[in-house]
Sequence to fold (761 residues):
Amino acid sequence: MKKTLSFILGLAVLAGCCRQKPSATVLEPVDYVSTLVGTMSKHSLSTGNTYPATARPWGMNFWTPQTGAMGDGWTYVYTADKINGLKQTHQPSPWINDYGQFAIMPVTTGAVFSQNERASWFSHKAEVAKPYYYSVYLADHDVLAELTPTERAAAFRLTYPEKEMSYLVVDAFDRGSYVEVIPERNMIVGYTTKNSGGVPENFRNWFVVLSDTPFEYVSTVSDGQISGSQVAEAGHAGALVGFRTKKGQQVQLKVASSFISLEQAELNLRELGDGDFDRLVAEGRDSWNDVLGRFEIQDDNLDNLRTFYSCLYRSVLFPRNLSEVNAAGETVHYSPYNGKVLPGYMFTDTGFWDTFRCLFPLLNLVYPDMNIKMQEGLVNAYLESGFLPEWASPGHRGCMVGNNSASVVADAWMKGVCVDDIETLWEAVVHGANSVHPTVSSTGRRGWEHYNALGYVPSNVGINESAARTLEYAYNDWCIYTLGKALGKPEEEIAVYKERAMNYRNLYNKEFSLMCGRNEDGSWALPFSPLKWGGDFTEGNSLHYTWSVFHDPAGLIALMGGDDDFNANMDEVFSIPPIFDDSYYGGTIHEIREMQIMNMGNYAHGNQPIQHMLYLYDWSGQPWKTQARVREVMDKFYNSAPDGYCGDEDNGQTSAWYVFSAMGFYPVCPGSNEYALGTPLFKKMTVHLPNGRDIKISAKNNSADNFYIKSMRLGCRSWDKNYISHSDLADGADIVFRMSSEPALDRGTDKSARPYSMSNE
Fold:
């Protein structure tokens, strides 16, 4: 074949380019993040149960590609082949499912609307998923779809092929929706009501879609029927608009939504300014680097860096800020509790059963400037509903057990994240300890009457998971007592909570050296099996829940007969084969399967009840076992691939576990102001606090094999304790670890080295 001169010159230029020395690329924190971590999940086996959330940190709206059917909690799964929409979502988990949702989809195959007809094949090789930007090539439509969000709005850039008529679908979903096309403004407006519970009767998510390209075709859709009408109000409403496009023509959209009104949705468009897509991408990137950049790491292990920052990204998504800014510049919110528009902050989409453990402690340490707003939101939640939430999405949801709002409030106050109206929060935690929500029994304390009278929730009074409730209520009582003491409340007011904090002892069965359910008459709930999941426990068994004495490990050690027996019992969790009894569920739930396949005995890191247990060796004279087990879990159970978790990620909790553990310490007992030592992951880490101080952590001789702490310095002091106090960190700290491949059997073994326990007060 004859080569043209232009072709030859092109080759020459290309060769010249290839010979040029490539410029060095400086990676920033957000560059290490993959939003696809955890997406290779399914109902029967979770590796995160996440979706690629494109958002701003704690943003009101997230956006995600949608591979699942409308209403499917598994909205995006990595193994899918087709995308049927780019969806605004507020889903915290597939089990809770979604609300405030609608989808946008470019189409070129004709005037089609249904999710199956508009769906397109795609490849991960033609997909870019970053926290601030998402793009995908929709092969069936020959369209490159790009989006970048702000907190309450998003910009789209859709690159179409040459077509006599290309289309844009706006799907407001079913269960009651409305759309209106306004051709003279190149605008589509409407609302969606689709939700999964936890909303007032007047719930609406209003949206506005503004195109820079005039509509040449206009139709709406009512329950599957396409018509030339400009308005549709139906069970399932949508819009279908079209325009001629040239090859490579970019159609840009400005999109915003509001839970308050259509007018507020239009106001929220202000976040986009002139809508310049590239500028918004850059601003989104900066916002993520600002938040993720609180952690500065020096290490050459790229895999660990990617895993860390991907976990950190997940840790600063929830709880989401449901607040909006009105025309007067005031922060207001639609109340998911009473349906009113009220002043102040509101945060939602989190379950405290999960996140009290270390997600909120992470906020208190590194992002107190955000958690103070969340605490103000809790004040509003109580005033608007009469209860603090335990699981919110967006209002109270019937999910899990415990009264862990007490921990979230107490830990914040004890760590200096002090809301002005603490008296309202004090009233709220006391009220929640002695009542239960009239319609959502997981809010407040189900079984509180029995608990207050007997010191436990009985197993035989028709209240499920009674032992788990008792253990968590006891810790929650300690939180209330600790908060009350810090607030200077009278002893006669708080003494009862101090007493009830010891109620965990009522479930300790000496015969088994485990926590067991107990009947109303005081007898043990029989037959008992430590391998039985559910029943008296929540998504776990007695082997997992026995360690849920966060506030008094010393007391638990004493019950078991001392350090040796305590350590032997913990060791046994790892040595028992992963056998189980799933009869309570009538089948093997995914949490059980995830424990079974991990080759770590009966240890179940994929669910929350036992995640702190690895650190309890710090209380029993064998801290090196904590160091070994923590590093084993970090290496084995976490990575930055789509299967990067070992169970549900759960709104930042499982991720925050990794973030804390990478620092080298962990908040076993939120509210105590102490962090139990583990093992640092990186050679150097600097945590930039918002007060201008730094926590500097260095681990000399650290490596995959050198995970044991040989010695440690805190500032200028040699440090042989198994804990660090919050005050040591909050004012800035210089921590130096010396690591070894062999355990230091004489370090941290004295009782004086042990972290806080109530029994030692």
The two ends are 89 Å apart (CA to CA). The chain has 20 helices and 36 strands.
